[in-house]
Amino acid sequence: MPNIKQQEKRMRQSEKRRIRNKSRKTEIKTYVKHFDAALQRGDREESEALLNKAIRALDKAASDGIIHKNNAANRKSRLMHRYNRVS
User: Fold this and answer.
1) What single DSSP character describes residue 66?
2) C-alpha pair distances (Å), 61 with each of 33, 41, 42, 46
3) Which end of the chain is more exposed for a tag (fewer CB within 10 A), N or C?
4) What does the alpha-carbon distance between residue 68 and residue 58 come to, in Å, rounded to a whole number?
5) How many CB atoms lie within 10 A of CB 69?
6) Topology of domain 5-86, per CATH?
């Protein structure tokens, strides 16, 4: 445990951010899983809507610094590739 007040505050802040970032990453994974499930069912309209949600969440996470922008771009590219292959 830190002896310095500022370091205690830093630990509290970083823990809050870690929990918030973890939640956002989990949200992205959920959108991708739902998208994959819709693709498996062959539901084109639902999969397109879920694809847009996943892409929006990835862009938001990249702009907030939760994931790297290239990581978001690669994930979006893979999602689009899967969507176009089925379509």
Assistant:
1) S
2) 17, 28, 28, 23
3) N
4) 10
5) 13
6) Methane Monooxygenase Hydroxylase; Chain G, domain 1 (1.20.58)
